Amino acid sequence: MTSVRIPPVLRVHVDGQKEVDATGGTVGELLRDLVGRHPGLGEQLLTADGSLHRFVNIYLNGQDVRYLAGLDTSIGDRGSVIILPAMAGGSGRPTGV
Amino acid sequence: MTGTVATPTTNASLIDAIGNTPLVEISRFAANPRVRMLAKLEGMNPTGSVKDRVARHLVDGLEREDRLRPDSIILEPSSGNTGISLAMICLIRGYRLTVVMPDNVTRERRQLLEIYGASIIDSPGAIGSNGAIEMARRLVREDPRYVMADQYANLLNPLAHYETTGVEIVTDCPSVEVFVAGLGTGGTLMGVGRRLREHNPSVRIHAAEPMPGEAVQGLRSLDEGFVPEIFDASTIDGRHLVTTAESIEATRRLSRTEGIFAGVSSGGVLTVASRLAAAMESGTIVALLADGGWKYLSEDLWLSDPDDERLEALNLW
User: Fold this and answer.
1) pTM of the predicted model, to two decimals?
2) Contact between B241 and A59 using a beta-carbon 8 Å cutoff
3) H/E element holding A17?
């Protein structure tokens, strides 16, 4: 199981949870498993052709997966995944999470 | 005798003193002795940040395009530094300036804008810079006096870095292999990245970005997301999240090891540079430190341990 951080804007699709579990060897498998459990996330995260929505960034251990192997990025045993909406930089209120 | 005697030079105004910032070895800070790490100190620009370079290019552009009338007011969304840079330049050149700024930025930024005579319009801090951009773009549509250069969409922003920052780095450190800067508008990463790649196609460009707090993510839907128009994702090689706590800790360590007092976003850049250095066998990293810590002193981030809740309420990047 990999824990996935859900941003506030998408929590309505996961019963308000801040973090949910999903399984998958790659980021793509993980997202498909996540959407299977929470169908409302489907068209939020992925486009019709199965690629990542333009305004969604997925980070594996703090790194944007678009610069790793994208949806084919292997997660490994101790991966942590964070989903964030694309927002303007300088957008402040960073936190010490 | 230390140093060399420079040829006497004067600047026609403070605007001409922008750029040519020092590149300083930070080997005491860098944890991996096989990796050479250098800091580009953009806080040594006239108003204390890298944005002086961008603001000069933006105002030059408005003049060149003949967009400024006697009743014009230059309007720009900014979380602080761009506004302060524009304010200094507008003061010298005789233009009126209004800055649209999230209401949760540090007191110093607001004070500096007032000292330079700029007007401020508050945008809701809960939606961060997204809110400032949206409000500024709406104001420009509604009031013909407003003229916006728009640092998020204007190619003069990356061009400023391509023509100045990037050239300085290549000149001062031709062996640069990795470049790290903060991701805001994307201007620094795009402009410096393009220049460095022309110099050495195998150079790697990495972005540090702040982990947004819960409170800032007040978007109603993902469609309100925003990617700056000037940001071309293919220019960079990696994008890394950094927490504010990590960023502040890095600036503390930098001030204690090197005597350099850097701003919070610089701490994020240094955190990423350190992560990359730890994974490198050898090489040279240039980290761009966008501003100094001076404009954040009122928040008491360094001598105390601010809790997450207080950090969450601030716009520090």
Assistant:
1) 0.92
2) yes
3) none
